[in-house]
């Protein structure tokens, strides 16, 4: 049953910080400058994530902290750049990582609550930001000297705990982060080898010399107010946002796939084509809701563009190593007028979302990288959907077990929707200004109600934590 989960009332986890320090590679590393690709350059912002674990009597929080601290020290040897600092090369105007072993952050904290008292861990909660600090107080809050990676262990009075990570996106994309987590978990065991050796050669995604732009790239634009030095950053301003989880069960996904079947196939009772994925139908629905909730008037002639984050590793020739460590991602775009999005068949939206990644071939990727070399642009779209469905963070096993929940923390990004696995189906984390969220929620509700013909047959049922049951079986 499709549901909408809103913020719980809890605003403060009553956190006490016991330790805030730097940790360093367990072995001496070579001081060097790490080249960053044009894709890396524009992703200079932090991504906070959290992993919740149930109590394990064999691994009380103090043991977990000790093992994790040692594990971080070990992984900082092959991942030496994660203990480095960002620097701007004044001659080239490019960002680099100074692999100088300046250290990663390590924070130990405790909460006065138990995990059960936090309610639904999936439900977006601003208080959870306390589980992944973004800066260290010691050393002093000097931007140039702040760690690019901070790990925080927060224990709860029940014996459960959370591992929060704040990682500058320049360091890792989703698949890189999955490999890093596997390596971190492996080193928390007594004598387990690394899960994979990271490939640190980011020059594999360097621009050609001379650059050759062979395609048009409307998914990027050049900002009006470029920084005086350094690359532009793909970010957005901070403002008041409402964050909610839009949940689609497996039956909801099956229903959407059926709606996504082209009309001719539906008339012949054919099954949905194999190419219709769960992500594509979810992304198409999210796009529809976002496009039609953009403003009060909903200008039918306005063009709405959805950006879909696509992994490049298998799309290049030769392919990148699976363990490529960096940002091997680009955005595939789908554009349509709002009037067509509203009145056209849902199957058309799904088709557009499904077809967009096919545009990203080896030649297209190289053209984008060369365009970025020449133009210093950033992604251009109304909304971006980033899928965590296949990253498998919830499957990473530590000595104390797998996380009971893992996912992104609520942050200031109103332009990105994160889609991640649910126990039964898919969760979509959406953050929007209050009025726009009301319109988005209404579009989400009405889409199911209208196409099932039950708009007047079911009343909304609200549970204690603010979830809205939409009457979708």
Write the layout of secondary structure elements.
Blueprint lengths: L2 E3 L9 E9 L8 E3 L3 H4 L4 E8 L7 H15 L9 E5 L4 E6 L4 E8 L37 E7 L5 E8 L5 H15 L31 E2 L20 E7 L1 H11 L2 H5 L10 H15 L10 E9 L17 E9 H6 L2 H10 L6 H14 L2 E2 L3 E5 L17 E4 L7 E7 L2 E8 L1 H19 L8 E2 L5 E2 L4
Parallel strand pairs: 7-8, 12-15, 15-17
Antiparallel strand pairs: 1-11, 1-20, 2-7, 3-6, 4-9, 4-16, 5-6, 8-9, 10-14, 11-18, 12-13, 17-18, 19-20
InterPro entries: CAT-like_dom_sf, Plant_Fungal_Acyltransferase
Family: Belongs to the plant acyltransferase family.
GO molecular function: acyltransferase activity, transferring groups other than amino-acyl groups
Question: Would you write up a description of this structure?
Answer:
- Belongs to the plant acyltransferase family.
- InterPro entries: CAT-like_dom_sf, Plant_Fungal_Acyltransferase.
- One of its GO terms (molecular function) is acyltransferase activity, transferring groups other than amino-acyl groups.
- This is Omega-hydroxypalmitate O-feruloyl transferase.
- The protein is 24% helix and 24% strand.
- It is α+β, with helices and mostly antiparallel strands.
- It has 2 domains: 3-211, Chloramphenicol acetyltransferase-like domain (Chloramphenicol Acetyltransferase, 2-Layer Sandwich), CATH 3.30.559; 242-469, Chloramphenicol Acetyltransferase, CATH 3.30.559.10.
- The protein has a 9-stranded mixed sheet with strand order 13-12-15-17-18-11-1-20-19. A 6-stranded mixed sheet has the order 2-7-8-9-4-16, covered by helices on one side.
- Helix 2 (61-75) crosses helix 3, helix 6 crosses helix 8 (346-355) and helix 6 packs across helix 10 (434-452).
């Amino acid at each position: 049953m499709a549901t909408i989960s809103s913020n719980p009332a809890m605003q403060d986890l009553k956190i006490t910080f016991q330790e805030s320090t730097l940790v360093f590679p367990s072995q001496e590393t070579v001081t060097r400058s790490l080249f960053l690709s044009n894709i890396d350059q524009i992703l200079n912002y932090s991504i906070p994530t959290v992993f919740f674990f149930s109590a394990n009597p064999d691994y009380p929080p103090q043991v977990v902290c000790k093992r994790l601290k040692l594990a971080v020290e070990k992984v900082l040897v092959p991942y030496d750049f994660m203990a480095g600092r960002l620097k701007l090369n004044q001659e080239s105007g490019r960002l680099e990582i100074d692999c100088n072993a300046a250290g990663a952050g390590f924070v130990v904290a405790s909460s006065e609550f138990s995990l059960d008292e936090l309610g639904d861990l999936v439900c977006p909660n601003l208080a959870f930001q306390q589980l992944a600090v973004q800066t260290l107080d010691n050393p002093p809050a000097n931007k140039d000297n702040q760690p690019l990676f901070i790990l925080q262990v927060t224990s709860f009075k029940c014996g459960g705990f959370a591992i929060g990570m704040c990682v500058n996106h320049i360091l890792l994309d989703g698949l890189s982060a999955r490999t890093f987590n596997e390596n971190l978990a492996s080193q928390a065991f007594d004598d387990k080898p690394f899960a994979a050796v990271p490939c640190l050669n980011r020059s594999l995604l360097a621009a050609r010399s001379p650059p050759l732009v062979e395609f048009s790239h409307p998914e990027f634009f050049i900002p009006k107010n470029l920084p005086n030095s350094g690359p532009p950053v793909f970010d957005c301003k901070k403002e008041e946002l409402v964050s909610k989880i839009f949940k689609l069960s497996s039956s909801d996904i099956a229903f959407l796939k059926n709606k996504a079947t082209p009309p001719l196939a539906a008339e012949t009772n054919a099954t949905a084509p194999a190419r219709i994925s769960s992500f594509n139908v979810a992304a198409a629905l999210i796009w529809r809701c976002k496009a039609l909730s953009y403003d009060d008037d909903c200008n039918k002639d306005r063009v709405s563009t959805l950006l879909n984050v696509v992994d490049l590793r298998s799309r290049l020739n030769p392919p990148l190593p699976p363990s490529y460590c960096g940002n091997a991602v680009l955005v595939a775009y789908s554009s349509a007028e709002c009037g067509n999005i509203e009145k056209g068949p849902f199957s058309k939206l799904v088709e557009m979302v499904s077809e967009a990644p096919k545009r990203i071939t080896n030649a297209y990727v190289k053209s984008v990288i060369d365009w970025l070399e020449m133009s210093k642009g950033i992604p251009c779209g109304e909304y971006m959907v980033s899928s965590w469905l296949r990253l498998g963070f919830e499957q990473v096993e530590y000595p104390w077990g797998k996380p009971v929940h893992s996912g992104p923390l609520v942050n200031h990004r109103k332009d990105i929707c994160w889609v991640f696995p649910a126990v039964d189906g898919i969760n979509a984390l959406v953050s929007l200004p209050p009025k726009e969220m009301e319109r988005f929620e209404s579009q989400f509700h009405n889409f199911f109600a209208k196409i099932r013909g039950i708009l007047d047959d079911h009343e909304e049922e609200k549970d204690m934590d603010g979830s809205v049951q939409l009457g979708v079986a």
